[in-house]
Amino acid sequence: MRASLLQIAVDPDETPNTRRDRVSSLVAEQRGVAELVVLPELWPVGAFAYESFEAEAEPLAGPTHEAMAKAAAAAAVWLHAGSIVERAPDGSLYNTSLVFSPSGDLVSSYRKIHRFGFDQGEAVMMGAGDTLVTVPVPGLPLGVATCYDLRFPELFRGLVDAGALAFAVPAGWPARRREHWTLLARARAVENQAYVLACGTAGTHAGVPQAGHSIVVDPWGEVLAEAGDAEETLTVELDPALVATTRDRFPALKDRLLGLPRPGGA
């Protein structure tokens, strides 16, 4: 299976509608190139553009859904369309990922569980999701996480238990913590013996330079491809059988101890 990560540059001078049109064209160009395409977190507005969240929030079936459904169908790909600022029917905001089938149907949505901001920004503006999501990509069941989720290994363990062989992690990760980004992506791959497709943004979001450096890591922790810090597309070949082979030859997951004894044996 071939997968492409589209590391989108977020230019504050480009309107969200213009960017949707541009990204739709980039996705459509993947027809015959890839079977799975992954976009970054909050690319329509910018992950750190908190002041724009209210104005740019959209319903699940809003303009980004419409544009990306058409793009997925045009390219005939499984499309993880990154995430949007979702406005729920009750008015609450969520950082919500959308995943489309090659026919353009919305097959999954995921509300980000771990919100970044330490009692400000996203952490106070958006609600937290409460459901783990996997996508039935043929041959390569895909676990879905978003950006800050990457720091919480228990989420990925849950996705493994749900059958994930690969993780898609769209992000708007800041440049000042780029080393954490690549380190954590490799750690999640090694500890879960699964592919990690971590797709970030380029450019600057509300004055915050983005890390870029989208990365694809195999189940042994080897980096298959890594982008630079500008807009770029990574296309890699994934072998679903490698997950089973890795887990069979080094069966660390079988040694998991759930419910560890309390300190002192009490």
TrEMBL record:
Positions of the CN hydrolase domain: 1-240
Native source species: Streptomyces ficellus
Family, per entry: Belongs to the carbon-nitrogen hydrolase superfamily. NIT1/NIT2 family.
Molecular-function GO terms, alphabetical: hydrolase activity
Keyword Membrane: no
Coiled coil: none
InterPro entries the UniProt entry points to: C-N_Hydrolase, C-N_Hydrolase_sf, UPF0012_CS
Alphabetical UniProt keywords: Hydrolase
Name by which UniProt lists this protein: Carbon-nitrogen family hydrolase
